[in-house]
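Give me the fold.
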Amino acid sequence: MSSQELLSFRLNGQPVTTPCEPARILLDLLREDLEETGTKRGCDLGTCGCCTVLLDGRPTLSCLSLARLVEGCEVTTIEGVSPPQGLSPVQAAFVAHGATQCGFCTPGFVLTATALLKENPHPSREEIVRAISGNLCRCTGYTKIIEAIDAAARGGP
C-alpha cells in the first residue's frame, strides 16, 4: 500500500488540495479524482497529444507527467479555457471552421493553440504547424485546424 501526500496547486484558476499517491500520473488525477474529463486519454505513450494540459502556460502531456510535479503550479484544462460568457477565441474559431470533427483530439489542439497565441499572437502558418506537431487528429487532415488557429490569431472566428 502506497502512502498518499497532499498535493496543492491551482486548477483552472482555483486552488486545489487533494490526496495523491506519489506515482499517480496527472491524467488520472485530473480525470478520475478531480473529474476534469475534458482531458482525454488517447495513447498513454505521449504521442497523440489528446491529454494535453497547460502547466504554467506551457503545453504538457498529462499522460507522461507525475501529478506530484504540479505542486504549486497552475494547471489549465479545456474546462478552464472558456470565459464565463462563452467560448474562447480559439474555441470559437474551431467551431466556425469545422475543425472539431469527432472532437476527441480537440481539447489538446485548443490548449496547444491557446499557448501558442499567448506566446506568439501572430504566428505564421509554419509556426502553427510546428506548434501542433505533437497533436494527432484522425478526422480532419489538419487543414481546418490550421485555418482555425490562423483565424483566431487574426482576431476572428
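The mean pLDDT is 94.
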